[in-house]
Amino acid sequence: MRTLGVDLAAAAKKTAVAVIEWADGAAHLAHLSLDVGDEEIVRLFGSSDMTGVDCPLGWPDAFLPFLAGHLAFDAGPVLGYDGIEGRRLLAYRDTDRFVTARTGLIPLSVSADRLAHPAMRCAVIQAKIARDAGPQARDGSGRLAEVYPAASLKLWGIQARGYKGRGAPEAEKLSLALADLTLKAPWLDLAGYRDDLAASDDMFDAVIASLTARAVSLGQTLRPGPGDAAAAVSEGWIHLPSGHLSGLEGG
Question: Which end of the chain has less neighbouring CB within 10 Å, N or C?
């Protein structure tokens, strides 16, 4: 099995990918790169069994009718989201609320925060994948799944708070997170990429995304329940690990 992890930025700069090959109870980091363009992501998707992307795959279902009403000068759909509770429905998806309830983490809003630009790029990448390999379900039931490295790290018990950034304190915390990962996953061969991972939180997140893609493929993530299934198809669904990191080794 080959899993691809993508830490997606708004442009190629700071976009990282990681391919892990799984065989005989071991995992090998076969490819790791930074500043990756759309076509390379689509190519790697084509040669991977499961891809985990750290970016929203869709927008809140409420967002489109709100915008359509505003565009058409139709007050009804707009007034339906009056007040802070209405705006929360526009800003956060069902899966975002699910993640917060399960982990205490609050994902950035795809419609009202700096995730919007990466999500627009992600929508184009999804269209390119659909063109070449067929449409992929946004709920993760195909070969593409939405992942959230911060949540995966927390649920796997890896100490990884405050490692995002370019300063010395962040670099130290990233080094500690990487050390904790290698301690808890001795079966993961970093194949000479350890220094690169210690120097780039983007590449580190891509590896975590690839590990989470493995969890998705093994059925070791929390799937949308009956109340979330319909929204997950259109909005996307963040796959949270449901088992231990060690459970990725077998299967």
Answer: C
The DSSP secondary structure of 23-70, one letter per residue, reads: ETTEEEEEEEEES--HHHHHHHHHT-SEEEEES-SS--TTHHHHHHHH
Q: Which of 63, 69, 74, 54 is nearest to 150 (CA)?
A: 54
Q: Tell me the pLDDT band of 166, cut-offs 50, 70 and 90.
A: confident
Instruction: Report which secondary-structure segment, H or E, holds 96.
Output: helix 94-103
Q: Read off the tokens for 129.
A: 């994948």
**Position of tokens 């929508």?**
123
Contact (Cβ atoms closer than 8 angstroms) between residue 18 and residue 29: yes
- 8 Å CB contact between 10 and 56: no
Half-sphere exposure of 134 (CA within 13 A, CB side): 3
Contact 240, 151 (CB under 8 A): yes
Angle at 184 between CA 171 and CA 27, to 5 degrees: 95
CA distance 228 to 199: 38
pLDDT in tens, 37-90: 999 999 999 999 999 999 999 999 999 999 999 999 999 999 999 999 999 999
Rounded to the nearest 10°, the torsion over CA 146, 55, 66, 104 is 70
pTM exceeds 0.70: yes
Task: Rounding to the nearest 10 degrees, give the CA dihedral for residues 199, 215, 5, 133.
Answer: 170
First to last CA, the chain: 10
Give per-residue pLDDT as tens, 89-108: 999 999 999 999 999 999 99
Give tens-digit pLDDT for 130-145: 999 999 999 999 999 9
